[in-house]
Design brief:
With about 375 residues, the chain is α/β, with parallel strands linked by helices. It has a single domain, classed as Rossmann fold. It has 5 helices and 15 strands. It catalyses: a D-alpha-amino acid + O2 + H2O = a 2-oxocarboxylate + H2O2 + NH4(+).
Length: about 375
């Protein structure tokens, strides 16, 4: 049987999901190269800082919608079949305030808070919340069953599944993407390199994507458990601040968020912002703490800062030749890397197959 030597560059959720899917074909010999691996906490490595959950953000009819549609069945199946993967089902409540005009809502919440969203036919148990059950400041709200992910556990699970399928993981800090082609674990040159380096694609030789920029996300991780996940269209504190709450599976703590600060590279938690995040969370979910305790009632695990890898014009999932090396890109997913992971990885894998078919025809 002919084999395909494939290198996946990057071990965030995009790289690991792509490697996981590719490793399911015995013909593919997959090497994953990465500067950062699951277990690392570095500002360059966005995936461990994520919530992470499934709260669809894609605009109806867009590629983004298609990727999120394709991802839900995969996350649902993993949640049901593999409890060790660190994902659990969770009720979600989405609130849209009257005072937040649609065009002013933070980009990652715009379609999420639509009163009649496309994802109503995707997620289980979707239903609008009757207006008589909403406060006077809310325009509309909905609830549905979603999932919440414990990223350190889930990323490690993806590594384990890929290794079980024969993938090999290696640490590497490459200056140029073509160097990856010569780092396959067999010693042979890779047939194709998949670039899943996220924000690092801005600095990686051969890519140097100037369209990449960060959106700084700050969260507070606490031991308190409010029950369901929640998100609100906007806050009154600042246009680049947000309000969302989610409890990770298997003891991962509850994430209180957050912020969406574009072009902000600061890795240090802002304690003033942290206090606003905690106060907003308690206001929307009073059962986080005992009555009257306020912010002091929160049992803080840590403060976290991650940089969402945003890209002007949206994610880059395409193929190209760089100095004779066949490359498939899969990066620039901003704040929706997990909830679009399988859809985006499926698209990347299809492009890998095209590259391999082209190489096969060239040999005939």
């Amino acid at each position: 049987m002919a084999t395909n030597n494939i290198v996946v560059l990057g071990a965030g959720v995009s790289g690991l999901t792509t490697a996981y899917l590719l490793s399911q074909d015995p013909a593919n010999k997959v090497t994953v190269l990465a500067k950062h691996m699951p277990g690392d906490y570095d500002i360059e490595y966005a995936s461990p800082w994520a919530g992470a959950n499934y709260m669809p953000m894609g605009k109806a009819g867009s590629n983004h919608e298609a990727w999120e549609r394709a991802t839900w069945p995969a996350l649902k199946a993993i949640t049901e079949k593999y409890p060790e993967a660190g994902i659990h089902f969770r009720k979600a409540f989405i609130y849209n305030r009257k005072k937040d005009p649609q065009e002013d809502i933070a980009a990652f919440f715009t379609d999420l808070v639509e009163p009649n969203p496309w994802y109503k036919d995707v997620v289980p148990d979707f239903k609008p919340i009757p207006s008589d059950q909403l406060g006077p400041d809310m325009d509309n709200a909905q609830e549905f069953t979603s999932v919440c992910i414990n990223p350190p556990v889930y990323l490690a699970w993806l590594v384990g599944q890929s290794v079980k399928n024969g993938a090999v993981f290696k640490r590497a800090n490459l200056k140029h993407i073509t160097d990856a082609a010569n780092a396959h674990h067999t010693g042979k040159k890779a047939d194709v390199v998949i670039n899943c380096t996220g924000l690092s694609s801005k600095f990686l030789g051969g890519v140097l994507d100037e369209k990449m920029y960060p959106a700084r996300g700050q969260v507070v991780v606490v031991r308190n458990d409010p029950g369901p996940m929640m998100a609100v269209s906007k806050t009154d504190d600042a246009p680049d601040e947000a309000l969302y709450i989610m409890t990770r599976a298997v003891g991962g703590g509850t994430i209180l968020g957050g912020s969406y600060q574009k072009n902000n590279w600061d890795a240090t938690p802002d304690l003033s912002l942290a206090n606003r995040i905690m106060a907003r969370a308690i206001e929307i979910a009073p059962n986080l703490v005992e009555k009257g305790q306020g912010v002091k009632g929160l049992d803080i695990i840590r403060h976290g800062v991650g940089l969402r890898p945003l890209r002007e014009g949206g994610p880059r999932i395409e193929k190209e030749k760089i100095n004779g090396v066949s490359v498939v890109h899969n990066y620039g997913h901003g704040g929706f890397g997990y909830q679009a992971s399988f859809g985006c990885a499926d698209t990347a894998v299809s492009l890998v197959k095209e590259v391999l078919q082209e190489k096969s025809r060239a040999k005939l």
